[in-house]
Design a protein that fits this description.
The protein is mostly helical. Helix content is 76%, strand content 0%. It has helices at residues 2-16, 18-21, 31-37, 43-47, 53-71, 73-89, 94-99, 104-129, 131-136, 139-167, 181-192, 216-245, 251-270, 272-279, 283-300, 304-332, 338-367, 375-393.
Length: 397
């Protein structure tokens, strides 16, 4: 019984840290009020509070193998949780800084820098959230847990964004209080996951002397992940604009559509293990095909049911594609390079998130300025990726 409980606590500890990855956009509901609090800042400058963490997140995901070689994996994750939790709460104290006469511009800079530091902490957690599951589990159990991991990320997004919206009634600073949940995750991970020994900076090889390497097959997976995430992030960003521009609904109603997208992804992630057992190598093909269908409906939507259907299909696509891709990386990466390869794969997602607004703008200049214009080309690209995934992975067991 003790061993069974230990196994349960290990799973809880490993899976719970992915909630941190879903908290990055939690403060989005507060942006209009933050703009009012800092009228001297432009809309773009305020909006960077939800994107700037991608920069340091990307850097520290790539640095994660090196940091873990000095500290050990468990200490690295705990450090990342501690850094993201503390820096995430810093803006909550900003009203005190204003109260003692600190200049408004300086207060905003402190908040902006705290978001930059927060991203670094999240990057350390992201860099190990996938590879540590591969350290303790294998086969179908690993695939199932990776699907649940994706759901935990979505759960973090849904729960913290909703809670931030409630806390906003107390003032624009209070949505940042949602980052206190990271300290609960710190405790769960500390209790559930056993300690490991650092390799004392030997990040370039294993104890057996085998050098680290990134195979072409992993780079192909990263490229597919980048393209998928570019389309997925794009539809997330554009749903409000599509609805208002096409007269489908209001900006506030768009939050219901985005919630439907997130919840469908959460439920599909929980069922990923069963889907994987049934489809095996055809799983990413299905994920890409669903995103293609969702983008097509989003690009041609003329009614609320159509935009809801498109959002739900996109939500279902995310865990099917991403969970399979991350599981695949742990399988095809050399044993000496699993952490490095998963870090690069996760970094490709960070890059896609950062560049997706620019890609939308570029595609819009080519095919039309309407908010929905890029998504039919996106649908065609994802249909091509679905076919490519079938060719590359369709026969994998």
């Amino acid at each position: 019984m003790a061993e069974k409980n230990r196994g349960l606590m290990l799973k809880v500890g490993l899976l719970s840290i992915s909630i941190t990855m879903g908290t990055q956009m939690a403060i989005s509901p507060a942006l209009p009020d933050i703009m009012k609090a800092f009228p001297e800042k432009t809309i773009t400058q305020v909006e960077t509070l939800t994107t700037v963490q991608s920069i340091t997140g990307l850097v520290f995901v790539l640095l994660c193998p090196l940091v873990a070689s000095f500290l050990g994996k468990k200490r690295t994750v705990l450090l990342g949780l501690l850094v993201s939790g503390i820096s995430g709460l810093v803006p909550l104290l900003s009203s005190m800084l204003s109260g003692v006469g600190m200049d408004n511009i300086l207060v905003f800079r402190i908040i902006w820098l705290s978001r930059l530091v927060y991203g670094g902490g999240v990057g350390l957690v992201c860099g190990l959230a996938v590879s540590m599951i591969g350290d303790f589990f294998e086969g179908d159990e690993r695939a199932t847990l990776l699907g649940i991991r994706t759901s935990m990320e979505t759960l973090g997004q849904v729960a913290t964004t909703a809670l931030a919206g409630v806390l906003l009634a107390l003032g624009w600073q209070w949505p940042f209080a949602v980052y206190a949940i990271i300290f609960v995750l710190f405790v769960l991970f500390y209790i559930g996951v056993p300690a490991d020994e650092p390799t004392r900076g030997q990040a370039t090889s294993t104890e057996s002397g085998e050098p680290q390497s990134v195979p072409v097959s992993v780079l192909i997976v990263c490229a597919l992940n980048f393209l998928f995430m570019t389309c997925y992030c794009g539809i997330n960003v554009r749903i409000p604009s599509i609805m208002t521009e096409n007269g489908i609904g209001t900006a506030s109603q768009s939050s219901l559509v985005i919630s439907a997208l997130a919840i469908s992804g959460l439920l599909c992630g929980l069922a990923f293990g069963k889907v994987f057992e049934l489809l095996r190598g055809k799983t990413p093909m299905l994920g890409a095909a669903l995103l293609a269908a969702g983008c097509f409906l989003g690009g041609t939507a003329a009614s609320m049911p159509m935009i809801f259907a498109g959002a739900i299909l996109c939500g279902l696509a995310y865990p099917l594609f991403i969970s399979y891709i991350m599981n695949l990386v742990t399988e095809i990466a050399p044993k000496s390079s699993v952490m490095l390869c998963t870090s690069i794969a996760i970094s490709s997602g960070f890059l896609a998130s950062f560049f997706s607004p620019y890609v939308l703008s570029w595609v819009g200049r080519v095919v039309g300025e309407a908010a929905a214009a890029p998504f039919v080309p996106y649908a065609l690209m994802m249909a091509g990726i679905a076919a490519l995934c079938f060719f590359l992975y369709g026969r994998r067991k």
